[in-house]
Specification:
The complex is a heterodimer of chains A (198) and B (265). With 198 residues, chain A is mainly α. Chain A contains 9 helices and no strands. Among the domains of chain A are: 4-56, Orthogonal Bundle (Helix Hairpins), CATH 1.10.287.110; 88-164, Serine Threonine Protein Phosphatase 5, Tetratricopeptide repeat. Chain B has a two-stranded antiparallel sheet. The longest helix of chain B is centred in the C-terminal third of the chain and has 30 residues, at 177-206. Classes of the chains: A mainly alpha (198), B mainly alpha (265). At the A-B interface, helix 2, helix 4, helix 8 and helix 9 of A face helix 1, helix 7, helix 8, helix 9 and helix 11 of B.
């Protein structure tokens, strides 16, 4: 795949805000309502989506177990590559679901593996899928087990760091709004006409 | 529903307040148009947030106007609606019905209301099969677990989070459905835990179910809430939003905490 920034018509030093604006403009241009149902527009749309995903989500990209932890994410692009043969059979469905961003299905597929056969890799996949459905508590539990089973695994360790890092990032950013405790109106907003009535 | 997902007005600019208010009034107006004046009883800020996220995400066309309404007949005020306002209104009624049903079951109040609102269900279920099924089944599961006196507050909040996650997915084919689902799930977890925290004294007194341990401290609850809010925000930041992003961030990073401080007392 070509450079994701050039797909969006941007320079590589573009900010996330610029990426988002460029994505929206292009997505509108190639939307089926505008461009019709042409295969060309659909292909272009896929490219734009993949580029957006690569830029915005790259920090969280899914490690497929091959040597590279980057770029193994491109659903629809066969981005999964060489590690496919290495993946245990019973985990392949889950990995396919994750690559297709169908995380709930991935969780269900993983559940079918009996407990005694759940490896570090299983717990990592489970943590990854759970984190992407908003279940960060379950994700944290699972990644800890994965690390227990394979203490030196860099992928697992960095995944846990990212997971925990979200909380401090959230708290830091909250500070810029004056923290959690200041400036609230006690019951309702004086300028809101409606909220006292309901 | 719960009304926890609201802005911290003190750090919004005048224009942002106007915009936020106009979306609120747009939802109110749509509820009245679709379901009658009484429906504004169900109105909450949570669905204003959803409407603004979905509208921003799709750059939805806005219909603007001014009105004098039943609650505020004197002062004319502006409103904004988009194609997602009616979705938010419908979701408000769907969730509102079940929260009313809960009230009827708990303390026997509102039986005739419940009967009247029940008539709306078939149309909503028809129109939103995926979402309405997730809401119904999810809430049934929560009720069952309540009866079993489930003590795992995180598990309970996740069940509620999954419900709100589905509500946030307007279109299950959308490229951003997973981020929307995570955003809704994180917020749902947050709402559930905060609601349990705010109600804990009342629940203890009346003997009603409350998932939080009796001796839980404010810091422990806060940690759980931060985790839920962080999960929601991480998903939020992945969405290509650019129109209402300051208002929405104000809500996510600040406004949603307003009742935590009150509830702590």
């Amino acid at each position: 795949m070509s450079d994701p920034y050039s797909v969006l018509g941007l320079r590589p030093d573009a900010t996330d805000e610029e990426v988002k604006k460029a994505y929206k403009a292009l997505a509108k241009k190639y939307h089926p309502d505008v461009a019709g149902n042409s295969p060309e527009a659909a292909r272009k749309m896929q490219e734009i989506n993949a580029a957006y995903d690569q830029i915005i989500n790259h920090k969280e990209s899914f490690s497929t177990g091959s040597s590279s932890s980057y770029g193994g994410y491109g659903y629809g692009y066969g981005g999964y590559g060489s590690s496919r043969e290495e993946e245990p059979l019973e985990l392949r469905a889950a990995v396919a679901y994750i690559n297709a961003r169908r995380y709930m299905e991935a969780i269900n597929a993983l559940r079918s593996v009996p407990e005694e056969r759940r490896t570090g890799r299983w717990y990592y996949l489970s943590a990854y899928a759970k984190a992407h459905t908003g279940d960060t508590v379950g994700a944290e539990r699972d990644i800890s087990i994965a690390i227990q089973k394979e203490p030196g695994n860099i992928t697992y360790l960095s995944f846990r760091d990212r997971l925990l890092g979200r909380r401090s990032a959230y708290q830091d950013y909250s500070q810029s709004f004056g923290g959690f405790s200041t400036g609230f109106f006690p019951c309702c907003f004086p300028f809101f006409p409606c909220c006292c009535i309901i | 529903m719960f009304g926890y997902v609201l802005a911290n007005a003190s750090s919004l600019s005048k224009e942002e307040k106007e915009t936020y208010k106009a979306h609120y009034c747009g939802l109110c107006r749509t509820l009245r148009e679709r379901y009658g004046t009484k429906a504004i009883m169900a109105l909450s800020y949570d669905m204003v947030f959803l409407e603004m996220v979905l509208s921003d995400l799709s750059d939805a066309e806005e219909t603007k106007g001014t009105e004098r309404c039943v609650p505020h007949p004197v002062k004319e005020h502006g409103f904004v609606t988009t194609r997602f306002t009616s979705y938010a209104a419908d979701m408000q009624m769907l969730l509102g019905y079940y929260s009313l049903l809960d009230k009827v079951r708990d303390d026997g109040k509102g039986k005739s209301e419940e009967k009247r609102m029940r008539l709306l269900l078939p149309a909503l279920e028809n129109r939103y099969p995926r979402v309405s099924q997730a809401v119904r089944k999810g809430l049934e599961e929560l009720t069952d677990k309540e009866k079993e006196n489930e003590r795992d507050a995180q598990l309970m909040s996740l069940l509620f989070g999954r419900i709100l996650g589905e509500v946030f997915v307007f279109d299950d084919e959308s490229f951003f459905r997973d981020d929307l689902r995570s955003l809704g799930c994180g917020l749902g977890r947050f709402i559930y835990l905060l609601d349990a925290w705010c109600d804990r004294v009342k629940d203890r007194r009346s003997g009603a179910y409350n998932p939080l341990p009796e001796d839980i401290t404010e810091n422990e609850v806060k940690e759980m809430l931060v985790d839920a809010a962080a999960a929601a925000s991480a998903a939020f930041e992945r969405l290509p939003l650019d129109q209402h992003v300051f208002i929405l961030r104000n809500i996510l990073y600040s406004g949603i905490w307003s009742k935590f401080k009150e509830g702590g007392k």
